[in-house]
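Readers of this paper often ask what the protein records in our data store actually look like. Nothing more is needed to write down the fold, since each code stands for a local backbone conformation. Below, we set out a record of this kind in full and without editing:
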Amino acid sequence: MPGSRACGPRCEFRSRGRERRHGFGFRELIAQGAADIVQPSVTKVGGLLEMRKIAVLAAAANVTLVPHSFYYGPGLAASLHLAAATPGVPYVEFPGTPLVAS
């Protein structure tokens, strides 16, 4: 993102990526040093394999990966599996609201 890198030390931290739809956007963010935390969504970036690629890029650049999983069901399950299998993932962002039957 233009201008994100310039924020640098003046910002407490820079979290980016929920709106990204594929790994290329994350590659660009990481390469530009535009994020301290990236938050890909397994359902939006193309599945677990693409998430693993993003995780490798983030780890190599010392960028924290926190999966964005603001849904229940298979997407949350996939995000939890990825977090369990990926060193350095501190937590998974997920909805704090109770699951209610409609």
About this structure: The helical segments are 4-7, 23-31, 42-45, 48-60, 74-85.
